[in-house]
Amino acid sequence: MHYIKIAIASLLIMFSASLVMTSCKSSRSNVSDKTGVRYNDPYNGGLQINRKIKGSSGPGLIGIEGGTFVMGGSLNEDLGYSHDNLKRRVTVASFYIDETEVSNADWLEYLHWIAQNYPEDGKLYYDALPDSLVWRNPLSYNEPYVNFYLRHPSFQDYPVVGVTWDQANAYCLWRTDRVNEHILRESGALVDYKTLSEQQTREGQAFNTDIYLNGQIQGEGIDGKNMPKDNKIGAEKDAKRIVRMEDGILKQPYRLPTEAEWEYAALGLIGNTIEGNIENSKTYPWNGLGVRSGNRKNQGRMMANFKITSGNNMGVAGNLNDGGDITVSVKSYAPNDFGLYNMAGNVNEWVSDVYRQLSYEDFEDFNPFRGHVFVDNEYENAETRTLAKDKYGRPIKVPAKAARKQTWEELQAAKAGTPSTAAYDYDVRGFKDEELNELYGKTTLVNDKSRVYKGGSWNDRAYWLNPATRRFMQQDESNAMTGFRCAMTMVGNVYGPSSAKRGSATP
């Protein structure tokens, strides 16, 4: 009996201890590990930390688990003898990329928004229009595409073409703001669409993420009914505040993928990886050395939309092969092992990099990229930290002034107009490989505005379907064979060491 009492007492002690440990563990998530001070407490300063938010993609994106690969490794022959993508091992961080190319319907949404919000600004709308004249050819009857390709509903799911690199970047900026505005209106942090539609639209007051986060978009007629609670000391009862980046609600910017990201995503080697080893390499976004399907159901069918031979764009009537005379719907053909459509063929795709023939010589082995022009926000009032805006409500960017965080004294001197002793080279597009502008068009066609595009198109031979091939155009040029898709940086890493998603193609 005595032993039974001791055993029961021991069990009770262990049970009580486990409850205490569980309680400590559950409450600790809302407490600083370093000071023990509770987060989100309005009585101790109100520092708000959101422990429940997990990284997620924006609309239309697929998560790409990063890793190491041999950039240029899929290119077994260099038909042009350009030697501009020799093999080198790099690591690409995990990121998000569009499942499909940006379609005509997507671009029409962009144009529609501009027309609604800036009906009197003809230049803004005109500058956003794709160049439909890229279809014109003096020896080809393509004139119907000039008028119908962008706007006819039969082409609405086809990839937008005739867009320059500059236009693609402008679309990325616009998409970022529309996605974040939609999140805020749907969550109630901003007034809903119905209320907004009943208000008078004021030119220059369109939503911008950076301006909003700086506290310059708030007030009567703007704030929604479900704004976050303001926990700062001295705040009135039931006081509200704007959403902050720390809340984890807003999405990071859409952008063009880097060349390394695009090539990595196109190859989709994750499908050939077993226990950390790549069992088979790839020449195209699918397995095998050829461009025809080896699947019994679709055996012999082309895996992408490209120019099969001279004079053969689609195959023979009655049993068409790739079936695409020009472009086809952005969800045509089978996706690659990351779940991405048309990473080979259909249209070439812009990437963000500046072209250099010797890019393989001057590169970082982690997230390689060439094309930085470092900028800062311009302040309308430095004392109040009010950002300067252009007439469209976007922050005005100015060249970055320093390579590092300035000291307080340096910052004050800059405000007073005292010139810095050392000039900072904020434009590093030509880093370690400067191009002489005066030679452009004479001895070279490459300068700091030459941008890379990849992937091959409906009018290209199979060679260009290899993800390692690369070509370039000027960033203000376009053609009927080039479109784009957007990417997004992955904050944190949903494929990290503790994630159950490791090895999965989609988050």
Overview of this structure, please?
The protein has 507 residues and is α+β, with helices and mostly antiparallel strands. The chain has 2 domains: 61-189 and 243-371 and 428-489, paralog of FGE (formylglycine-generating enzyme), CATH 3.90.1580; 373-422, no CATH class. The protein has 9 helices and 18 strands. It has helices at residues 2-28, 104-117, 122-128, 143-148, 165-187, 193-197, 209-213, 259-267, 408-415, and strands spanning 61-64, 67-71, 88-92, 95-98, 254-255, 273-274, 277-278, 315-316, 319-320, 348-354, 375-377, 379-381, 386-387, 397-399, 450-454, 471-474, 482-483, 487-489. The strands form 7 sheets. It has a 4-stranded antiparallel β-sheet. Strands 16-15-10-17 form a 4-stranded mixed β-sheet. The radius of gyration is 27 Å and the shape is globular. Residues 59-362 form the Sulfatase-modifying factor enzyme-like domain. Residues 1-22 form the signal peptide. This is Gliding motility lipoprotein GldJ. Keywords: Lipoprotein, Signal. InterPro entries: CTDL_fold (IPR016187), Sulfatase_Mod_Factor_Kinase (IPR051043), SUMF_dom (IPR005532), SUMF_sf (IPR042095).
- Termini separation comes to 57 Å
Q: Which CATH class of the largest domain applies here?
A: Alpha Beta
From the spread of the alpha carbons, the general shape counts as globular
Report the CATH superfamily of the largest domain: paralog of FGE (formylglycine-generating enzyme)
Give the class from helix and strand content and strand pairing.
alpha+beta
Q: How large, in whole angstroms, is the Cα Rg?
A: 27 Å
* Biggest sheet features: 4 strands, antiparallel
Protein name: Gliding motility lipoprotein GldJ
Signal peptide: 1-22
Domain Sulfatase-modifying factor enzyme-like: 59-362
Organism: Sphingobacterium alkalisoli
